[in-house]
Amino acid sequence: MKPFTLTPVLRYRQQLEETAALRLAKAQREMQQKREQSEQLEAQYSRLLSKLEEDQSAGITVDNLLRYENHIDWLKQRKDELAAQLKAARENVRKKRDIAIGRSRDRQVLEKLKEKQNRAWNLYIEKKEAAQLDEIAVLSHEPKHDDT
Length: 148
Description:
2 helices, mainly alpha
């Protein structure tokens, strides 16, 4: 009896691997977006500090100085938030990558098992065929008995 075919299982494993790869790509895009947001915020922060320095050297009112300080504090908080989000996005990408690699390994193991199983089945069939051919050869060489 032919062993269980692994084709449906392999097809399912392939789907799991493709889904994991899509999720990894999505997580990488999200991480890239967070990185870009962080870089933009850092540039905005640097521009604000240089503008504050220019205004201070030219003279600045207390109200404007307070506005600068409030805006700088808000940007620092936003930078911290984005840094935490970026760290979480990196961790998410790492997890998704590990899952994708695991799915790929699972599929590869099953493919090797299928190949091994097919080789064993083909060897079994070849042995059966050889035994049948041997039996046919033996039967064809036996002397024929006539009952006359």
